[in-house]
Every structure is written in C-alpha cells, then in structure tokens.
Fold each of these.
Amino acid sequence: MSERKTLDERAQMTDLERVRHSSAHVMATAILRIWPDAQFAYGPPIEAGFYYDFEMKHRVTPDDFEKIEAEMKKISKENQKFEYKAISREEAKAMAESGRLGGLTERPGNPSRFKLDLIDKIPEGEQISCFQNGDFIDLCAGPHVGYTSKCKNVKLMSVSASFYLGDESKGSLQRLYGTAFENKEELETHLNRLEEAKKRDHRKLGRELGLFHIDEMVGQGLVLWKPKGALVRRSLQEFITQELDKQGYSQVFTPHIGKLDLYRTSGHFPYYQESQYPAIAERDVLEKLADEDATCATLINGLSDGTYEGYLLKPMNCPHHIKIYASDHHSYRDLPVRLAEFGTVYRWEQSGELGGMTRVRGFTQDDAHLFCTPDQVAEEVTGCLELVKKVLKTLGMHDYRVRLSLRDPDSDKYVGDPENWDKAEAALRQAVQTLGVDYTEELGEAAFYGPKIDFVVKDVIGRDWQLGTVQVDYNLPVRFGLSYVGADNAQHVPVMIHRAPFGSLERFTGLLIEHFEGKFPTWLAPEQVRVIPISEKTLEAAEAATAKLADAGIRVTIDRTPDKVGAKIRLARLDRIPYMIVLGQKEVDEGTVSIRRRDTEELTTMSLEDFVAKVKSEIAERSL
C-alpha cells in the first residue's frame, strides 16, 4: 500500500488488466457464495493474472479450485453488471462496519475490518468509490469491464499464505491466485506454456539427469556441480575460451576474497553491503574486541567506516582485474589489454528469492575486462557485442532484444564525471546501432559506474532472460588511478569495458537445461553416445567400440546391465543421450553398428569409423 496507485494511474489499466481486475471480484463473489464468512482485504491485477487476499475459517486448497471455478462460471453466465458508486467516507465506514463492504449482504457482528483500515488509508479529498456486481460490493477505485460475461476465460492457479499489507505482525491471510484472458485461445496458450515450463523446469531436470545439487548443509544458493553438469559447464567454458583466444584475450585467475579497502575504492563497499556477504574481520581485530567485551555493532560499524581492516568474499571480479592491470606499466602501444576469467563471485540474495541455478548466492561469471584508449572504445565494444551474438547464434537463441541501460540524470546513485558518462553512453549507442537489431533505451538502469548493453533472450516458451552484458566504464580507472603513457609521452587514464556473454554459468546453464528440455546438442551433452549390447555375446565387441569412441574424444558409456534391449533404449532416452549404438550379433558379423537418435525410432547402419567421424564433426561444428 506504500506504492498505492493514484486514480489517474488506475485509469491507465489495459483491457487485459481490466479483465483480470474484474475476475478478482468474480472470484471473491464465488468464494462468498460458498463461504459467507470470508473477510476480504484487496485483490489487484498482476503481471500473470490476479489475486485476492482474504481471511476465513476454511483453509482453501487446490481441491477447492474446481468448486470455486464452477461458481465463477455461473457468475459469468449471469452477466452481472459492474456498477460504479461514489460514496462519502462516512457511508463507506458505515457499510464496512455492517459487514456489507466485501460481502454479499450485511453481516451483523462481522464488520469488514480490512476495509475499515483501507478507508483510513485513502487520502483526504480523494473520491471514495465502490463497485458492485450482483450482490457483491467492494471498496474499489476500478476500472472494470462492463459485465461479468467478460470474465469467463479464467483459471485458478495456486493458493498461499500472505500477510496483511506485507506486515507479519498484522496476521496471516490466504492469497488465492488466478489468471484470466480476453479469449479462450489466449488462456489455453498460457496454460500450455505453464505446463511446458513445468516439464522443462531445470530444478526437476537437473535432479533427474544428475546435473547439479543444492544441499542445505552446504548452504542455500550454493550450487554443487555434479560430474554430468560439470561436463556441460566445461564444454561452455571451452567454447568461450576458444573464442577469447582468437580475439587476443589473456586468461587470469584471482582469489575469491579481497581486502575491504579494495572494495571501498571500487565503491562496492559499504554502499552495496546489503547484497553482499558480511565482511570478515582479521583475527587480531576479533581477539582485541573480544578482550574489550565489545558489541557486534562496534565490529560492524568499525568495518564499515574503516576503523578495522577486514576482507570480503568478492562480489565482483573487476577490482581484482584492475589490480592486475595496475601491476605493470603500460604504453598506448600495449592497449587494449584484455583480461578474462571464469571468476566466482558471491552475493547475498534473500532466501525467498533463491531458485535453483537461476538465482543463487555464489556464481561463476565468464568475465572479462578490457582496458583501452578512448579511440578504441567503439571498436572494442563492437567486438564484445559480436561475441555475444556468436554465443546466442551457436546455441540457437535467435529471438532476443537489446536494452541500452543509461543513467537517470536526476539520480545521485551514479559515480563519476557527467562528461565521461556522456562519452560512455554515446560509445554504447554507436556500437549497438551496428548490430542491426531493434533496441530500447532505459533510463535509470545503468550500473553505478557506467552504462551497459544487455541482451534479453526469449526462450522456446516465450520467457525473457537477461543474459550477455557489455558495460563501458570511465569511472573505476579514475578511482584506482590507472594510467598509460600516450603518444605524447603524457599519462592518460584508460577506459574500462566490462563484458560477460553468458552472464553467469549457473544461470546460463539453468536456462539451457530448460531451453533444450535437457536434450542438449551433442557438443554440450554430458554423455554423447551410449553403447547398448543386445546380449552378453556382443559385450566384448561393445567394449571395443566404446574404447574407440573414447579414444576419439567422444563422451561415451556402455550399458552392461542384463536388461532387455528395449529397456536399455528407454533408459537412454530418459537420460537424453543424443546417440545410441545398438550392437547385436548381425552388426558384429558385418563389422557395422546400428545407430538410433534419441528422438527417432529409425535405425541407421554404418561402419564405426564413419559414425566416429560424424559425431566428431558434429562436436567440432557445435551443431544443434
């Protein structure tokens, strides 16, 4: 309610938002017909649909959804009109005290206490209004559709607990979510996408395919890459490393921890400490404060203001790369210097925001920082953007948009000279225009030290993911006193470019699991070929074929179980193996192998040598 929309903002609702807002009222009407004691708080439209918060004795479960939906359909068929009524504050309070607001009738002894509270939160002088459909009347500023018949394409989605106004001290409510669309086809498309998303959920597939594990004893948001997942990660790293070698990058390695002064200089600490792990005090500081019987506040405040020295799990790789650059003297002839690292960083995300691999507390960035002259910025940024395009093209991600994130001139969160900001934004705008794709400019979305270009990819079921990013930074080189000797023999400050095509390996891999539904292309698949001997008699030949495939650098296993061949094939398909070699006595006698792809019933017969050459070519070309 602290972000309560004005009446003008409410009037700007789209047609779909009006349908969803109205559907929330229809849902409330249906609940009251079934459970008349329900006390309603508020029910807004949201991005994916709508919800209503309410309190009642009956605890709603998914088993109740069919009954509620059936009542909602009746209300829709009744074609009740949504009628607007302007009322005085006194009338509103009287209706709430009688239980009429948020009800079907007056409810003596059961006043609408949430409505009474909400009335008090309406600013003096603002028009108070309610909307009525059938017998249901509720405190509401609207807008709504004309009749309930517009609210027939609805579906209840989930139920959860909530707190009134988000305040735990105000007691727990029930929150029932639903979704609604303007026509049946759009609703069905949405529900099909949700079902597809469940099938593709990387947390489910990651567990089934043995790719990664998150263990409570290790810590929430800290990913354990299992052997198969590590092979996917290694393939991605090798892909990027080959591209970096072509472009003249130098790979570096830096520690997972750094002194607080490093991050004070960069600006990451203490200004962003809420999104970082707590600082780590030096041992002698802890011993000294313990001897003095000091409080935790003394330690925390001392670390924040610099009274005490300490360390920080690195939230960013850039300060470490800056120090590598600063460790040598540079001439303009040396530039650009391109430093790359698969560097693991740590961020403190709220536990409720964590989710599988896509929202974690420790993640590895395919990070790089380029130090160049101002004249080199446009060309270097263009090279970074081309690398991101190459990544997306290789993985078959052709549906994406580009977002140019700029500073908000009215905000004070950005550091550095406004003139340098203008240069950086102009360089990025010039570079993004060379891509030949549509892009949007968004004020206020820049990093605190510089503007950036983000690639927002739409996956196969229509969801948006922010992936590769490129940022131009005139400020950190100044904060760290970086320099190079120019052609005029004077000292100059380099420009710094931050870029990460994947963003983070954890998040990117989670996306790829869902994008491919676990059916990775051969070059990415943790197991590329499975050899299936039909019987014990062909096991020796299967072992020999497996050895040849392994010698060729192909990731291969052999199914030695005594199961029937049909069961072995089904298991290989469940494991999403790109290729199966089915080896029977006929193949052994003829010196051939029978090849089955994971998504076909057809068998192709060829020599083992030809098959090895085919798979090696597919891997080398990174075919999809």
Note: The chain has a mean pLDDT of 91.
Amino acid sequence: MSSVRSAPAPAKRASPPPGPGSLTKTQRRLGRDWRLAVLFLAPTALLVGGLVLVPIARSIITSTTERHGQESVFVGLDNYLALVSDQQFHTGVVNSFVFTAYAEIFKVVLGLAAALLLHQRRRGRAVIAGLLLVPWVVPTVVTAFSWRALLDPIFGSVNNLLTASGIGPLLVDLHLVDSWPAGWLSDPSLAMPSVILVNVWKGVPFFTVCFLAGLKSIPAELYEAATIDGASTWQRFANVTLPGLRHVITVTVTLSSIWTFNNFDLIWLLTQGGPGDVTAPYVLVAYSKAILQLQYGAGAAVTLVMLPIIGALVFVLVRLLRQDTGTPSRRRLQAAQWAGTARKALPWVVAAVVTGLLAWASPQIFWKAVVVLAVFLLIAAAVGRVVTGLQSRGGRRSSSVVSRLGSGVALAGLLAFVLAPLYWIAVTAFKSEGQVVMRDNDLWPTPWTLDQFGALFTNQPFGRWYLNTLLVSAASTTVALICAALAGYALARLRFRGAQGFTVTVLLTYVMPGALLFIPLYQMLIGVRLTDSLWSLVVTYPTFTLPFATWLLVGYFSSIPVELEEAALVDGCTRLQAFGRVVLPLAKPGLLAVALFTLTNAWNEFLFAFVFITKDEYKTLPVGMQSMIAGDVVPQGQLAAASLLVSIPVVIMYAFGQRFLTEGLTAGAVKG
C-alpha cells in the first residue's frame, strides 16, 4: 500500500511570486517563503535529524570502538576486519539474500496472478480484495504464532491434512522433504523454505493491491488494438500488460526488497534464527552482538557493512520515483533512447545472475522453488491453452465457462491459502483447554467457550499490554500527523531553497531500516535513562511513521487545487489562515490515510519494543505475546485469544477507513 508510482510533482504556488524588486536580499537567496518554511519544517527536521541522521552518524563512530568494561576504546577498522573471518556474519548475509530473493520471486508471481484474476472480475472484487488484504494488516506476532502452530510437526494442522490426503508421503518420494512427519521449522533443510512461505503469505496482499492499481491504469485501447491484430492471450500479457506494469513492478519489488532484506521480527518470532543459524539474517547477527553480547561496535559494523546494498536499492527507488517528474531535457531524451535496448536486456541479465547465485547459495531450496513454480506455471499454461483452443474453434461460450471456472478455482485456492491461518486462530480462541491439547475436532470448537479469554487476562498482564499499545500508538500517530501536515504543506506549497533536498532526505529516512537505527538509539536511550519506559517508544517510533506520513501528504497537498488557496489569500487570509481554514479541511482523506497507516505501524511494531523494553509493565502487545512462550511451553489457546483481540481493532479500522485510504493514496502518494 506504499507509494508505487512516482513522487509527487511540484505543486503550483498559492500566489504569484512578487517581482524581483519586492524581494529582500535574504528572500532572493533563501526563497520567498523561507521564514514560514523554517517554522513549518522545524519539528520534522528536528525529529528526523535527531532520530535518524544523528544515530546513523553515531553508529559509524561506534563501529570503530570496542567495549572494555564500562569504557569504549577506539579500535579503528578492527570490527570490520573481524567480519572477514566471522562465519556467523557470512551465514547471516547469505541467509538475508536467499530469504529476500525467493520471497520476492514468489510474491511477484502470486501477486501478479491474484491481481489479474481480480482485475477480470466485475462482482465481488472489492470484497475479495479486502479479504486478501487481511494478512498484510494483522500484526506480525499474530502471523508468526498462527504459522508456528499450523507447522507444528506433531500437532500442526498442515502435517495432519497432508497425511490424511496422502500428499505428505508423496513429498518424501519427490525428495522435497527428508522424512515424515516433517519438522517444518526445526528441520535445517525445511526451516528457510518455511520462513519464506510465511513471508510470502504476508506480503502477497501488498503486491496484489499495487499490481491491481497498475492494471487499472493501462488503457483498454491497447488491449483492443492487440486483439484486432490477432494477438493471443499470452501475447497481450507479454506485450501490453507487462510493459504497462514495468514501473509499478520495479518500484514495488524495490520497496519490498528493502523491507524483506532487513526483516527481523518475523524470523525471530518463528525460529529465532534456528535451527542453528540456518534462518538467522544479518539483522539478527547484529542484535546478538550488540544487545546480547553488549559489543556495540561489532553490532554496528554488521549493520553498516550492509549499508551500501541498502543504499543501492534506495538509489534505484529514488530514481524510479523521480523519473516521471518534470519536463525531460534533450539530454535525458537522448539517454533514454540510448538505454532502450539495454533496458530490454537488463531483466534477463538480472534474472540469469540471480538464478545462478541462488542455485549456488542454496541448491536444496533452489530445486524446491523450481518445482513449485513449474507446477504453478504449468497449470496456468494448461488452462490458458484450453481457453485459447476453444476460442479458436468458435466456442466462445465454452471458453467463457472454462475461463470463469479456472478463475474461480484459482481464487478459491488463493483465499484458502490466505484465510486458513486466520480461521485457525479464530476457532482456537473459542476452544476449551482440553480440546486444544487433545486436538479434538480441530477445525471447529466443541463446545464454544470463552475460557481462553478469561485465562488470558488472569494469567497475563494482557490488559496492561493493551493499554500500553494504545497509549504509544495514539501518541506516535498524533506526533506524526502534526509534524507531517506542517512539513508536507511546506514542501508542496512554499518556495524556499533546499526544498528538493529536504524531500529526498524524507524519502531516504522513510526506507531506512530499523536495523541500522536500533543500536545507536538503544545507546542514546541508555544515556538519557529512557529504556524500560513508554517514552522510549513514543520518542523513537517517529523514525518510521513520520517520513512516510510526510511523503504521502506532500503528494496530497499538491493535488488540492491551488486556486482555492489563492481565493482565500485574496480575501485577506494569511498563509497560516489559508492553511488551517482551506487546505486542512480538504486534506481530510489524506490525513485519515496517514493516521491509519501510522497507527497500524505503531500498533504492530516489534523490534524497537523488543530491544528497548524488558519489564512486563511496559511491554506492548507484540512483545508481551512473544513473552508468553516459555521454551517449548506454548499456551496456544491464550495466544489465539490474544491474537484475535490484537487483530480485530486493526481490521475494523481498515474496513471503515478503506474509502479514505483509497482516496488518500490515489490523490497522494500514488499520484503519477
């Protein structure tokens, strides 16, 4: 649901600029509206500078030190040189690349397939899209718990269903699993594919919604012209659909790759990096060194070594989001013509390189992925061949029936994949403890009971965790709304020197992963004695809520007709009065979209809360639920009840705010 098109175009100014003679020397140097810009941008600049830029600079300094007792000693590049022979670091880097590459491949394929199926439907599309969005909305801790329970080797429903259907032994015969029942999260050969599967389950909705928006923007005339020219279904897809989605696909994959490459919470909650270090990404290696071993310099070095890779992805993203902005110069047009052939060949070169690296880094996972993708593509090709054959023979009615039947079966399978874990949570929450333990009537509570909810509040400080999460989420959302509204308006409307640089800085901090920030922020919080307090979360959450909120509102303010503001200025309003009386009321959809996103992100956040909070009385819901699991003792009934109570508010917010969310995104961040 993040921005997937182009950066907001520079807005028209609220009033014509005065003549050169009416500007002061300072205004000519700094811009006509520099005073008001300073006032509006100051809160965001202080927060972004103090919580993102300063911590990164401090992390660079920390990486050149080594802790000896209570003091840090300068060691130069020793921490970086030590990584050359650090096997744990090597494993973490390879795991991050493997995890990201396979997850992105499957998310693109499944997301594109789901978007194409939904795009062809006329009835129920909004309902199905809303259902597909649920995995992306629910907190990561709920995702991890539900899949841990489903993938349990003895009691999990996945093994039970595969055994009952006879598919389990077949997987052994095909050498996709070594033994049965399969230990999905405990078997070294299956743990990484299982973690990738869960990430794909959670990420496919984001790709589906982005691709669906891209499909709607492709002119229908292109398909009609291709049909008249005799193009087949596959040819229309290859020559119209894919080129039309190229920009959306590239931006979406780049954004998702940044998030996936720096993923910590999902992997930690599923496997804690095990068995051994099979699933441990580089972020977990940094956490282990800095937080568990208190070697801040070594941990900072791990995160900073990855900074060039993240920087390259961010550079690509910035170029993609800005390539459609402004009038292209002659030089840019010549460069675009020269790069046309190279651009066509680039995807194939990248695909070949990535395929070779994946086959070398993880041959077992590679062949499993090839088999799964081959089966998926063969089924799709078979259905397409049948439909094309019927059309060529004049059987339009038969081909339509086959097409609708194939689409219905595919959507049913997709919905089953998406909703099955959530259904399991819902029914488990209403089972008795005896039914949970004995696995009696696993798919339906017999009888229905509220015992798990009562035990949850009796045995755990769940009410306190809930209140903490509400307070932190509300406070961080309020801060993000106020600061982003001021900064977004300044960047969209005011004239001042440095506006473009500030906008790019906001974008960079938006995609800057928490993995680069949690170590220096943790050190800063210790220095001011804010750890183990809700203030530590209220202070640090703007690092990931404020940049996105500002970026989205820049686009939304730019979409508001400038004539309305000019009329208010002509009527005697000051710029501040026009902002408060005209612009803000018109920006309600954008403000509501920002509030929904920031509130959800704060509600679901895990890494900062996990690192900064250790006392039960200050824990938020994600960290509190994780602490309910003690070793091998998993109170599944209570966790299911907690998951339901955690997810319901977020789902309700998205259900009622869907109209404002769509309007805010359409007029704002995805405005092309």
Note: The radius of gyration is 26 Å.
Amino acid sequence: MNLAAIDIAIIAGYLGFTLLIGFYISKKASTDLDSYFLGGKTIPWWILGVSNASGMFDITGTMWLVSMCFVYGLKSAWLPWIWPTFNQIFLMVYLSVWLRRSNVMTGAEWLKTRFGEGKGAQLSHLIVVIFAIVSAVGFIAYAFKGIGKFASTFFPWELAPDTYALIILAVTTLYVIKGGMYSVVFTELVQFIIMTIASLSVGIIAMMYVSPEELNAVIPAGWKELFFGWTLDLDWTGLIDSVNVKIQEDGFSLFTFFFLMMVFKGVMSSMAGPVPNYDMQRILAAKSPSEAAKMSGIVSLVMFVPRYMMVAGLSILALVFLGPKIQSSQEVFDFELILPYAIQNFIPVGLTGLLIAGLLAAFMSTYAATVNAAPAYFVNDIYKKYINPEGSKTLYVRMSYWASVVLVIIGVGFGFLVESINEITQWIFGALFGGYSAANLLKWHWWRFNGHGYFWGMMAGLIASLVLPILMPDLQPLYGFPYLLIFSLMGCLLGTLLTPAEPDQVLIAFYKNVRPWGFWKPIREKVQQSDPSFIPNNDFGRDMTNIAVGIVWQLTLVVIPIYLVIREFIPMSVGIGVFLITSWILKKNWLDKLKD
C-alpha cells in the first residue's frame, strides 16, 4: 500500500506515544511485585475493564469474525460461542467475585489457598506454572509471525516480515517491561479509543457505500436471519459457489448439533473459570470482589458494538465489491485480503493511518497483556518461592524485567524457527486447553477434590489431546471435546479418590473466604459448627438465572451493530428492546446485589 505522509505520521506518533507512557509511569510500577503485575490493586474497575476489552480485541480474531460474517451472515453471531465469548458472563455473575476474594497475585498462587502446601498442591502448582509460561511462549511465537505478515501487507517499505515483527515487538516489549501493569492498562485505554474510532468509521463508510438493495443482490436467502433449523440452509450457488465448499469444510451444515456441542463445551469451560492469562490478571488486580465482577461485566458492553461495526462493515464491502470477482475467478479466496482491500479502496487519507494504528493497537494490546501476565508466574511462583524467598522488592521487579525479556526472546526464537506457526500454535493450545475444563470446574464445586486430582486431571487431558488428533485425524476439534473431558475427568477422580483429602483447616479457610456453592456439605457443616453466624452461599438459582439473562444480553450487543450496518431497522429495534429489558433485570438481580 502507498501510505500518505499524514498516515505515516499518525502511526509513528501512536508508537511514540505508547513508549512515552511506559517510561513516564515506570517509577510507580517499580515499587514492588504487586504494583508491577497488579497495579497495586488501585486501578479503577472501569479502566481495567476497558483494558481487558482492548486485550481481547485482537486482529486475528477480528479477521476470523469477518470471514464468518461474510459466509454465514447473522448466524455468525452464534459462532464465537466456540471460544466461548459468554465465559465473560460467568465471570461477571459470580466467578470474578470468587477469584478476587482469594487476594493472590497469580492463578498458581491461588491453588495454595485451595489445596494447601502438600505434595498434591505442589504438583498442581507446577502444572499451572508450566501451562501459563508455555502458552505465553506459543502466543509470542504466533504473534511474531502474524504481525510480520500484517505489517508487510500494509506498510510501503521493502522490509522482510520478520524485520517488521522485530521492530513492533521491540517497541511493545519496551513499554510493557518498563511500566508493568500500569503501562499496559493505560496504553490499552488509549488503544481502545483508537480502535473504537476506527471500527465505527469502517461501519459508517460501509453504510455509505453499500445500499440494502446491493447487499440483497449478492447474499443467499437466510443470510439475514439470526435463528436456524436443524440444518444451515444457506445455498451460495450462483452467487459465490466456492462458499458452499467452505461451509462443508467448516462442518457447520448440521448447525443445531454443532450449536448444542458449542453450548455444552462453552458451559463446561466457563464454569472452570479463566485460564491463567491477562483476563485472570485483571480480575486479581481489581480493588475488591464486587469491582472485579463489574470489570468483567463492562468488557462485553464496551467491546462488542464497535468490533461488530467493523466486522459487519468489512463483510458487506467485501460481499458487494469482491464477491463478483471471487465468483468469476473461481479461485480459492483468502479472507485475509478483505481488510487491505477495504482500506485501500474505501478508507480516506488520515483515517487510513488511524485505522492501521488501531489494528496495530489491537495486536499490541493482546501481546502486551500476555507479556505482562506470564512473567508473574516465574518470578512469584518459582524464583520468589523456591530460589530466593528473602529477596528485596527491587530485586523481584528487576527479575520481572529479565523474565519478560527472556520470555520474548524464546517466543521470537520459535517464531524464526517454525514455518507453519499456525499449526504449532493450534497444537500447543489444543494440548494445553484440552484438559483444562474438568479439573478447574471441580476445584470450585467439590470439596473432596484435591491437588493430586487436579494434577492428574490436567495431565490426562493433556495426553488425550495430544493422542486424539493422531487416532482420529479427521475429527472436528469441537467434537473431540467430550473425549477430552471424559479422559480428564477420569484422571481427576482416580487422582482424588486414591489419595487423601486435603486437610480440614485448608478446606475450611478456603470455603469461609471464597464461599462457593456446590458440593461442600461436609465442610459447610464444620464451618457452621465453629461459627454459627456463618451464612452459606445459597445463590445458585439466582446466579444461573443471571447467566441465562446475561448471555441473551451479550448476544444483543453482537446483533444490534450488524443490523445497523446492513440497515435492518425492525430487527435492530427488537434487539434494542431485548437489550434494555435484560439490562434492567441484571441491574436488579445482579448489580444491586453484589457483595464483597
């Protein structure tokens, strides 16, 4: 692309500004580990929430959403449940409160409050530290390849993709290491503002260029319908024939079965709680449990509308102006071309620089949050605990700097060595996340579950997720989840029942502090014997009701901006009505009843 001087100036100014913020507030971040990794638990909840939303607004995920919206239309609103996006509702309603009550710095440190100090606790602690560090290295390697390709597509200079990647990662790493959580959060606040302006602009430009009649001429029947039958019933024949092949390859034809599997996996994963990454770190950084819950709630509210304005805008521009070309060429289409095509042909000078800066911000915020979160596991859970427990606060912060540098170097090294970074990343994350649900669900809800059960449950799920693709190579990853869950659950049960329960004092302290609902009767009775004034958590019914209402509420935040961009004002009005009703219910039944 040939960028104008003003566009280059905007991009350079943005990169310089992020560095300035990191160095300006570095003194505040370097007080101690709590300040460096959690911002001293002083950052307001709404700023943490916007920062978290910025970290989730990644460019890779956005481009996947564009390709899904292009092919499946309004039905694509359901597809992010495969991650699942509604895990934020579970966090909002009750899990953020439970997690924040523990008052720890990392997910590995949290396990000490649940399993104590024995051998099982040490094993569970070890596997979570490994999980956090290896997943961070995998993400950095993936990010290195991804941002290089992104930059080489947009920037006019003749540099190799890896050279671009080194420059951008170096800038981002500098402000992250120097400023810690403070730097990450406040630069992400700026980044989110830039991304929001860019996203809304794309949606408005698409509405200016594409009329409803032009869109109707290039989409199949059912593209504008949110709900579905047993099968998908989208036929692209005569419009873009190759899309029918993609639908078959995606495995979404029997959509109701696919949807039920998404819901099953999504609920299991959501009840397990957040994985040890930047999402968990934002929860632990909140001032109080109630602020942690509000932080998780605001993420969906601020992120979805601008993101789906961009997604819908890019999709309809591609459908109307690229669709006929794809059909006439009969070639396999790379959906990643939608973004540079739309920018080059429809975005005016000045706004182009802002949009590219916004997309850089989307990458940088996700990367920065990962680089800030992962070293906490090494410094706090390995170096401070086992190597140098008597070190000074200054020493621990310096070790955090070095841990971040080493983590980035290792990740970049993998990025240089590996050709197909997408495949190896899927392998790493499939293996690591495959066995996560069962062990982490049981740790909240079953008193008898112990550290040995946690370790062997995670190990069984990990091994199963490595073996399953070899034994069943054609199996869609989502349909493999029940197998992984069963193997992991077997590891959990055998590991737990063949070893002693955790000490009563550990379980009683955890239960009194966190107050989870679930299968805690023996511990609840012991707590009430020693403290008759203790009131157990009887909010299961209310929490489940709020989750059901919250998922509908979140879905309206997806469909309203899509309906706006394609100018379907009647269903948009229905969506706004449902949003207002569900917001009122959540206000009365969730927000007003939050307790620390």
Note: The chain has a mean pLDDT of 84.
Amino acid sequence: MNRRQFLQAAALAGLAVGSGASAQANAPTAELEEVSIAEMQRRMQSGEWSARWLVERYIERIEAIDRAGPRINSVVETNPDALAIADALDRERRAGHLRGPLHGIPILIKDNIDTADRMETTAGSLALVGAAKPSRDAFIVERLRAAGAVILGKTNLSEWANFRSTRSTSGWSARGGQTRNPYALDRNPCGSSSGSGAAVAANLCAAAVGTETDGSIVCPSSTNGIVGIKPTLGLISRSGIIPIAHSQDTAGPMARTVTDAVILLGAMVGMDARDPTTRAAQGRAFSDYTRLLDPQGLRGARVGVVRKFFGFNDAVDKLMNEALDVMKRLGAVIVDPAEIATAGKFDDSELEVLLYEFKHDLNRYLAERRVGPPVRTLAELIEFNERNREREMPYFGQELFVRAQAKGTLADPAYRRALAKNHRLARALGIDATMRRHRLDCLIAPTNGPAWTTDLVNGDHYTGGSSTPAAVAGYPSISVPAGFVFGLPVGISFFGTAWSEPKLIRIAYSFEQATRHRRPPRLLASLDL
C-alpha cells in the first residue's frame, strides 16, 4: 500500500490530448535520446559536445515536447542562468579542471527544492509564487553545483507533494497544471515526483531529483519506466526542501539507468549541519557508488519475495514471476514467500505521524524562509487556498491541511505513540525481522501497477504498491523497470534494512543488466489496444 492508498483508507475510516502517435525518434534533438551520463562526458571530453550544447539541446526538447507538441508538461520552469553556468563549466574543462562525472551535466530538480537563484520554489502552490526567495540553496543543490551539474530547471509535482487531499490527482499543481505520462499522454505519471519521472523518461534531462515521503520517488519511476532510488533516511540532507514529515522525507535520484542514478546519488550525499540526521550516514555513505556496480551482483544473493504485495494485477504478477526466473538464472537464492508480518498494520499511525509532522515542519520551513504575507503558517495557507478556491482547489480540496492544523505539538502523547508504533512495526518487527528470519540480502515486490487514466473528477486510481514498509521504516528502496503491461511500464522494487544501499545497488544493477527492460516512450496520445 502506497501513501495515497493509506491516506484514502484512513480518511474513509476516520472521516485534452490530440490524437495519433508521435514517436520520440522523430522528435527534435533525437541524438540526446537515451544518452548516458558517461557518453555525455566522453563526447564533451572529445570536443564533439559541450555543456552549453547540451543545455541548448535539452531546452529545445523541453520547448518542442514538454511545452508544445505532445505537451507532457513536466518542467514548470527552466533556469535562466543555465547557459551562463554551462559556459563557466566549459571554460573549466578547457582549462583542464573537471569536477567529476557530473561536470556540465544538465539535471532537473523538483519544485519543492530550494534554489537561491532566479527560479521559484513553490511546491506547486500559487501561495509561494513570487514569494521571498530562499536565502540559500538546499544542501543537495549546493552539492550538485559543487559537483559541476547544471541545474537545468524545476519539475512540476503534485501540489504540496500530494499531501493536501485524499482525493487529489497525481501530477497536478495550481502552478504547473497536469503532468502527463509520456508512454500514454492520457495516463497518470504517479506520485508527487511526477514531473521528475516524466521528464527523465522523455529524455528532457540527463537525470532528475525527486523527493519521497511514501512512494513519491519509486511510484513515478515505475510508471514512467525509469530507475528511482529512495535512500535510507539521513543519507541525503533534507535542509532546504519543503517538507511533509521529517521521519520519512528524503530526496533521491531518478534516472534512466542504475548507473546514472548512482552517479547522481554519490553527488548528493554528505554531512549537513542543518540536518542532524545526516550524522548517522558518517562512515556509511559513498562518494562513488559506481564501484558497487557488478553484473554478477545477484550471484549468491538471498532474495525474499513479499507475496502480500502481489495479486492486484495478473499481468503484473506474471512480470514479477519472470523477474524471479531471471534472478534464479543469475544465481540468486529465492525465498518465496518472505512475508512482512506487520505490513498493513501501521497505515493509520503513519497518517497520524504525517499530520503532526506536516504542521510542525511546514511552519518551521515557512518561518525560516521568511516567506511573509500571504502565508507564514499552515493556518494562513489554508486561508489563502479558501480565498483562491477557483484557482487552487478547482478539482479537490485541502482536508489533510485542515486535519493537520487541528493537531497539537510533537510533544503530544498521541504523536509519540504513533511514531513509536511506526518504527516498531516497520523496522524491528517488520523489515528487520523478515530479513533476519530468512537471512536475506533484500526483499522484492512489484513497485506498483501500470499507470491509470488521469481523472481530475474522481482522483487517482491506485491498484497496488509496496512502498510503505520501507518509507515508514526510513529504509532504502530501488525501483527498476521490470517490463510492460499493455505498453505501460511496471517496476520492481528491491528494498532492505537501513544503510543497505550497497547490496541493493549491486542486486538492482545485476537485474537491470540482465533484462534491460527500459525502452523510451512513444508519446502516444492514448494506448493503442
């Protein structure tokens, strides 16, 4: 069950696309399609390409594919300084100074990640459009700039990271409108990092950064046919990221391959005095995760199958069983089933924690940013949405905001009990117990089902997903393409205990290299069934 499903369940318990196909091969700047970061570096080093050339070509693709033509609508803003940044990095290259594998590489970031530049940081809300800019970059943006990445722009998202209503539509924000799935434009891109997932899939950037509280990296990665890494809580700093809940929030890389995803991951990790949770990553983080990439990574690995997250779609089950056959051929030991006994038993307490922490964390973020009128608190944000109902709430409301505002402080016994329950059931009695009992290296399950048709009237139509245990535990999860159902991509999730990224990366890479399920979208108006 992903975050949307438990929000819907808890709430119930407690309360125009053109016709015809447009093949991506016919799109402008087709030479950028499916190009890896390593290939970009090779061509820049040879002098064939430059950082400026890459930025210019990606902006052309964004204009032709995202804003015109198919209109994926995944990029809410391009960086007006991107060309100047690229020029400076090209000069460094000519002078013999290379910062690393991201030198000159265009990266998109989600529109809830602070940048102290001429771009906006709004979480998709009109309340923050034109507001006071952040006084400094988010820590991960500082790291990316230091690594030589070109911040190409901001991606659209589900407004307020999909924590405003239980009946919202993923990929919609008042600022950015509705993002579309590039595999079928009438289908949904899923999760709050929807713009990042769609942009990477459509080759509008080299890679992108998303954020997740429960499912918002892995779900859009799955439904957009890419790789997404949701790291252990604390591996990547959250400072300068508009929050939902500090006990679960994390940023993470989204890319077309495991290799590109881990290159981006390595650039973002680091100790941050503004985020004390990063202290726990000391001695556990890698600056170069590519050294973990091993095509034989599944040989001898003990892989547990969480069958509880199967059964919602016969075609998805077939893909997962085919994936298990591949893993067996690669030498993995399959433990089937390896159930998480506590799965589904902490959905209500998860929502309780998120409501408390959202109020506390958002109020603190707004105060630190000194946004000023019209919104300095969650209460003022609720009032802003009511005053601007026609623009902010044309399709769904803000009942989660209202419920969060009614909560007390983090000292409340109800919050402390809920958080303790979450950690006990998701960690000690959940993932940890399952992996210890079966002596596992990882757990696997379908990330979620194929993309549903976007429905602004009724909201999202999730059918199934497996993101919640790792999300609530604060443990890592990697979604990798596992195949297609009626032309729509479906991902498989590899997840495990805290700080198990090295094992998961080896296993995910081995599976990816053996299967190579990733294929670019055709930008169909609708499925051709």
Note: The longest strand covers residues 477-485.
